[in-house]
Amino acid sequence: MKKFLVLIVAILSVFSVSAQGKYGADEQKCKENLSMFREYYKQKNYDDAYNPWRWAYMNCPESSGNIFKNAPKILKAKMKADKANKSAYVDTLMMVFDDRIKYFGKEGYVLGIKGYELIVVDKSRSEEALGYLKRSIELEGNNASVQAVFGYMKAIVNLEKSGIKAKSDVIEAYSVVSEVIDYNIVNETKMAVHFVKYSEKVEELFTPYANCDDLIALFSVKFDPATEDVNLLKRIIKVLDNKKCTDSDLFFSASSRLYELEPSSASA
Questions:
Q1: How far apart are CA 140 and CA 94, in angstroms?
Q2: What is the DSSP letter of 240?
Q3: What does the alpha-carbon distance between residue 93 and residue 99 come to, in Å, rounded to a whole number?
Q4: Which of 132, 130, 229, 113 is nearest to 179 (CA)?
Q5: DSSP code of residue 248
Q6: Nearest to 208 by CA among 246, 249, 257, 170
Q7: In this structure, are residues 104 and 68 in contact, taking their beta carbons and an 8 Å threshold?
Q8: Which of 26, 128, 209, 267 has the greatest number of C-beta atoms within 10 Å?
């Protein structure tokens, strides 16, 4: 009998939660707080937006995507105003991104924004951020966001400066992100203009590491005279050409092999 009653209570609880819908237990209060925080947000009054935003996030997170999209600016304002509790707000922001994925999906995209924002608010957590950014690019490929691409490069550079990553890691990161940047610019995607802007920022990060000897050493390990990997060949040629390393044997060999595979290639 006791087990039966427990089962009934559990079933009723499920129906109760289901009946609440996306606005939670108090639909009217949810809508009021949503409206309130949005108005403050539009006015860039992030301090007053915080309490109604927090109520909506805690009580009816599925009610609006704006709860998650607007969270970074609201929480970063709190970090600035309350420096003693900054780390707690950073943790809250990370939790908000996890919940955004939980309720609204788009894991690859959201992880990119999560990693980028973590780099912005807490440089000391660059290694953690790199994990999110790497996964984002793995999931999104050439559709990765500008934030994910720039954040990935920034995280690697931060870690190289702190001795956790090597110079070769920075060079490899550049080759990865430049591929995504080039794809969006060449194919004139809707984000192309933003990739053009951020490509300059990526170049600024990479310039201190742009040594021909380092590039040649990196790509020589990857290059096989009999390779069928056209994308790799194009990457090698592109990076060496951009960094004025075209008088190297590697550049000639990669160009020749690409011509064999794609005679119409512009690099011939």
A1: 20
A2: H
A3: 10
A4: 229
A5: S
A6: 170
A7: yes
A8: 209
Q: Are 222 and 158 in contact (CB under 8 A)?
A: no
**Domain residue extents for the chain:** 220-268
**What is the number of residues in the chain?**
268
112 close to 137: Cβ distance less than 8 angstroms: yes
Signed CA dihedral, 28, 30, 35, 40: sign only: positive
Alpha-carbon separation of residue 39 from 49, 111, 121, 239, 262 (angstroms): 8, 27, 25, 47, 57
Using alpha carbons only, how large is the chain's radius of gyration in Å? Answer: 24
Could you tell me the CA-to-CA distances from 78 to 37, 43, 54, 71, 229 in Å, in that order?
Answer: 14, 16, 12, 11, 49
Residues 64, 56: Cα–Cα separation, whole Å: 9
In single-letter form, the type of residue at position 25 comes to A
Q: Give the CA angle between residues 186, 187, 188 to the nearest 5°.
A: 90
Tokens of 93: 């922001």
CB 243 within 8 A of CB 253: no
Note the pLDDT tens digit of each residue in 120-166.
999 999 999 999 999 999 999 999 999 999 999 999 999 999 999 99
